[in-house]
Structure to design on (540 residues):
């Protein structure tokens, strides 16, 4: 028994053909196309709007989970559900695609939840019975708006949406999936707001290992679901200049603050390069890191971690560990301070931080003030 | 970048990137998402490498950081401790393979990744430090602790 056992098992793991297809397809900027090649019984180009259930049966099971006093509640009655008619004829984009077929689908919102600014929507997509033999994952794009403003970072591409994979359920022609968005608006989210969920560019990619063939089925139409949400508390997420502070836990004894840097990862990868040996890049990592200080500029005392994951004590050398558990300071005013490990003459000045390498001076790239008294106290 | 070049890069390094992501995420869906995002970033980044090993290290580093990003998400903050190993694509030919693999995958992610990069990818502790953004000393410490945990878990039969 040795590590070769681990290596042998690991060596047998391969990404799926679907993964390869997704990567190369997304980057070749090919137009999405219908590639179902069955030209037998369904050769005529068909147009059909997606059948929406959101206004009827789909809403039956629709509910929000509220976050109690601090959380938003939701209007249980959806305002509207809309569909965009599919084009009457799908364009054939390549010569080897002689026929096209549009697949109808029924959509249903199974439920939503909102906790700590993570909004999740469970969606069911049902294809007609004649497609029940299709196996594979359904991919789609999802976008969300609150009062007409796009929400969600940082998992989104430049189009303001994200790709989501739905998995086929035990039922023959039903795919289930969850669309997750993070509500990262700064400050408070108060009052009734309109939530719009938009699903589009849906397709099912099917791969057969037996004959090494793949097919893709496009689903016609878009799906838009609109409802309202009532926000009656303060967001536990404070955003400033691309940085976020999450008040994860707030008790009389301790606070857990999460800090997230939402800037483009590539900026750091490219700008900072690979140099980790010279003094300038001594603390090189992809992310800036942060610490929590009280109003006297003293770092809060971190609570030792249990060594079971990334959520440990403040450790500047940990390449971007951004969740910190600290003993609660005597006063409520604290600041979440993000520092740049690579030192670029920040106008915000510097801060001395105790690190694994001793006390070092770092340049401040962002500061987020937090008044803990403005956030409800957690029970434990 | 041409489609041919993208295909070449993907086919050459996707296995290493995916295996690294799977080691950290323990499930196929997240590992494939990480793999996709890693290569999308690679294709959109105008960067040249001295050799294949540098390019592979760069890709693995991006994948590791994307995994960390994911762990920082609210979803993972609250639930990742409960993520169980996705066994669908795993094949064990011996009992030892199963026991060792499960023991590794039960380690905390920071230990899993150094074990994976050291034993499977064959990187030195200095190289691993560059990949995961830690000092060589820190990597050596993590490797020591990881080995100790494996030894504690698997007993004297485990040869390290």
């Amino acid at each position: 028994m040795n590590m070769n056992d681990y290596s042998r098992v690991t060596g047998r793991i391969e990404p799926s053909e679907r993964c390869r297809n997704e990567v190369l397809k997304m980057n070749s900027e090919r137009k999405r196309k219908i590639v179902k090649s069955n030209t037998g019984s369904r050769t005529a180009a068909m147009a059909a709007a997606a059948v929406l259930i959101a206004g009827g049966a789909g809403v039956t099971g629709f509910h929000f989970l509220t976050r109690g006093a601090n959380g938003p509640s939701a209007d249980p009655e959806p305002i509207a559900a809309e569909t965009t008619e599919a084009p009457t004829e799908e364009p054939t984009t390549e010569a080897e695609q002689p026929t096209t077929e549009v697949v109808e689908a029924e959509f249903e919102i199974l439920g939503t939840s909102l906790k700590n600014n993570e909004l999740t929507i469970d969606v069911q997509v049902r294809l007609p019975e004649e497609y029940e033999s299709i196996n594979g994952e359904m991919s789609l794009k999802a976008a969300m708006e609150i009062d007409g403003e796009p929400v969600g970072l940082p998992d989104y591409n430049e189009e303001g949406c994200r790709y989501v994979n739905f998995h086929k359920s035990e039922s023959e022609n039903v795919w289930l999936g969850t669309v997750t968005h993070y509500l990262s608006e700064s400050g408070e989210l108060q009052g009734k707001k309109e939530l719009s969920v938009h699903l589009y560019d849906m397709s099912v990619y099917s791969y057969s290992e037996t004959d090494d063939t793949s097919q893709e089925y496009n689903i016609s139409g878009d799906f838009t679901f609109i409802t309202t949400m009532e926000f009656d508390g303060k967001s536990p997420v404070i955003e400033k200049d691309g940085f976020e502070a999450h008040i994860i836990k707030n008790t009389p004894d301790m606070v857990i603050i999460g800090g997230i840097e939402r800037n483009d990862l590539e900026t750091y990868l490219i700008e900072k390069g690979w140099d980790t040996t010279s003094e300038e890049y001594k603390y090189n990592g992809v992310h800036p890191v942060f610490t929590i200080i009280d109003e006297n500029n003293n770092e809060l005392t971190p609570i030792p971690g249990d060594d079971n994951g990334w959520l440990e004590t403040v450790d500047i050398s940990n390449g971007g560990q951004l969740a910190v558990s600290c003993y609660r300071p005597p006063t409520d005013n604290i600041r979440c301070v993000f520092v740049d490990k690579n030192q670029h003459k920040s106008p915000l000045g510097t801060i001395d931080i105790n690190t694994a390498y001793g006390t070092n001076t770092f340049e401040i790239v962002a500061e987020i003030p937090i008044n803990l008294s403005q956030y409800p106290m957690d029970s434990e | 970048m041409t489609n041919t070049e993208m295909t070449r890069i993907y086919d050459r390094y996707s296995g290493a990137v995916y295996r690294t992501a799977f080691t950290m995420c323990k499930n196929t869906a997240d590992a494939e998402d990480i793999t996709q995002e890693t290569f999308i970033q690679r294709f959109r980044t105008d960067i040249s490498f001295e050799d294949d090993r540098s390019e592979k290290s760069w890709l693995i580093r991006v994948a590791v950081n994307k995994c960390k990003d994911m762990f920082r998400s609210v979803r993972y903050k609250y639930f990742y401790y409960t993520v169980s190993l996705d066994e669908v694509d795993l094949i064990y030919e011996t009992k030892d393979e199963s026991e060792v693999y499960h023991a590794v995958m039960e380690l905390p992610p920071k230990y899993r990744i150094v074990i994976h990069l050291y034993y499977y990818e064959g990187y030195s502790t200095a190289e691993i430090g560059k990949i995961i953004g830690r000092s060589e000393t820190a990597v050596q410490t993590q490797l020591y602790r990881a080995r100790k945990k494996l030894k504690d878990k698997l007993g004297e039969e485990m040869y390290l």
The CA atoms of residues 97 and 277 of chain A lie 54 Å apart. Chain A is about 10% helix and 40% strand. Residues 17-28 of chain A form the longest helix (12 residues). Chain A has two domains: 32-233, 237-374.
